Structures are given as C-alpha cells and as structure tokens.
C-alpha cells in the first residue's frame, strides 16, 4: 500500500470493552478481541436522523441530534462488545446464591438488566456530582460571604465543574478495567492519526502516532464545560434573581444544555478542519485531558484499532474528507 497524502478525515470512533468501534464512509464497524484471542470484525446497520429529515442536519441542531445518537449507539456497542468479548459468559464467574437465582430467573436478560440499571445510576450520579453539587457548594460559599459572590455564580460553578471532572477522571483512570479501556481509546486515536498522516496501517506505524486528537469526545466535553461557564455567567448576570433560587436556576441551566451541545459540536467540527491559533487555544484543555482518558496501547490492542478502521474506510481518501 503506497503512502497517501495527509488529509483531515471525518472518521471517528469509540473505545469498547476489549475492542474499538469506528464510523466512516462504509458505515459503523467494530473489532472486538474474543476470549479465544481472535478479533471479531462486524459491520452494524445504523441509520442517522439527519438522513431522514434535513432539519436534523442544520448547524447546532445536528450537534444535539448527533450527541443523542452517539449516546444510544455507544451504549448498544458497549453491550455488544461485552457479549462478543466473552464478558457475559457467566458460567466461569463465581456468583453468590442471589446472583445465581437472578440468572436462573432472567436468563439471557440478566446482563441487559444489570447494564440498564448501571446506566440509569450513572446518569443520576453524573447529575448529582457535575450539576447539583457545584450549585450546592456555591450557595454555601455565597452564604458565608454575605452574597458577595452572586454576580459570578455561573463562572464559579463552571470552574468547580471542571475541577470535579478532572479529579473524577484522574481517580477512575487508575482502575484496572478503565485503564485498559483507555488503552483502546488510545488505539482508536493513534489508528486514525496514522491514516490521516497517509501512512500504511501497520502496528509499527500506528505506534509512532500521537494518541491525542482534537475531535475526541473528551475535547467535546471540555468545550461544553467552557461554553457552560460563558452561558452560565451571562445567565447569572441577566437573571440574578433566578440564580439565587436553586431549583429555578438548575431548570434554567438545563434548558440551555441543548444549545451548549450544539455549539460544542460545531466547534469540534471546525477544529477537525482547521489548525489555527484559536483552535489550538480552545482545544488545549481537552487535549491535555486526553493524557488521562487515553493510554499508550499494547500491540494486540492496536490490532483491534486497525481492524475496525480498515472496515469503514474505502480506497479513496476523499470519501471521508471532512465536509
């Protein structure tokens, strides 16, 4: 395979359980390392709302739609990878009497229910930690300072969100299973970087590439956090009375989340096409955070990244240029 010209690609992906998912011109594909050591590569039929209605493809709106779709698709692919990798093989897992009873009663639905409960609890925990806690802490600090901090409520809450987010990621990144998933995340980025650099997709070439990428979900989250600080600061200035009422303030901030998502998505798309000073400055925090959310992958993990990427690209690089 001859070297290809360096280009900006729209190909993206996600780390899975013992695997990688990629989206490209040939659709969605996953490469999962099975329990026997083989790599299972499969294409998945995914239909996007923007292909059904032009409204969902408009700027900002497409970001909201893409975020919701990515959450749903990401969950489905995680469930699929858990099964394909052998994680759902409960025969070799030591279970207590209650777990055995649940398995006997629920059968194949046992893992689905566990994952569903875990997802719901995850959303609740995320809301409490990243949304409710900053508001609660600010209100306490504001009371102690005789309401002197009120004009800067949005800014202070936003900074606290970033601090909590960084601390949370730093803690979970040390967990064994999470660390391995972050290695697959690194393999996803490095494989795409290798392809964008026009190099042949081999383990040796991929190992040379950078594991940080401006279109990463981590960067998207950080852009959203930065935008939320700006929006919250403006809201606290415009509606100072509402900002002091905890419930109304949270409802107001929730109402602006879709707008923040849409704007964040537009920036990530812009960052994928440009490499100017503005992009570098705004992308810097997210790229720095990828030092925590990605790890240098082993050769066998890189093989999964390459396999999933090859399954979604064509022989013509122009097919996946960012539009």
In short:
This protein is α+β, with helices and mostly antiparallel strands. It has helices at 61-84, 97-106, 109-144, 153-172, 176-196, 203-208, 217-238, 240-243, 246-255, 257-273, 277-293, 299-310, and strands at residues 12-16, 19-24, 27-33, 39-44.
Reconstruct the topology from this structure:
Layout: E1 12-16, E2 19-24, E3 27-33, E4 39-44, H1 61-84, H2 97-106, H3 109-144, H4 153-172, H5 176-196, H6 203-208, H7 217-238, H8 240-243, H9 246-255, H10 257-273, H11 277-293, H12 299-310
Antiparallel strand pairs: 1-2, 2-3, 3-4
Structure description:
The structure is a single chain. The chain is built from 12 helices and 4 strands, in the order E-E-E-E-H-H-H-H-H-H-H-H-H-H-H-H. Strands 1-2-3-4 form a 4-stranded antiparallel β-sheet. A hairpin with a 2-residue loop joins strand 2 and strand 3. With about 325 residues, the protein is of the alpha+beta class.
**Percent of residues in helical segments?**
55-70%
Counted beta strands: 4
Query: Spatial order of the strands in the main sheet?
Result: 1-2-3-4
The coarse silhouette is globular
**Poorly predicted segments:** none
| Strand/helix succession | EEEEHHHHHHHHHHHH
The rounded Rg comes to 22 Å
Largest beta sheet, briefly?
4 strands, antiparallel
Intertermini distance = 26 Å
Kindly report the average pLDDT value: 83
SSE class: alpha+beta
Count of DSSP-assigned helices: 12
Identify the notable features of this structure and list them briefly.
globular, four-stranded antiparallel beta sheet, 7% strand, alpha+beta, 323 residues
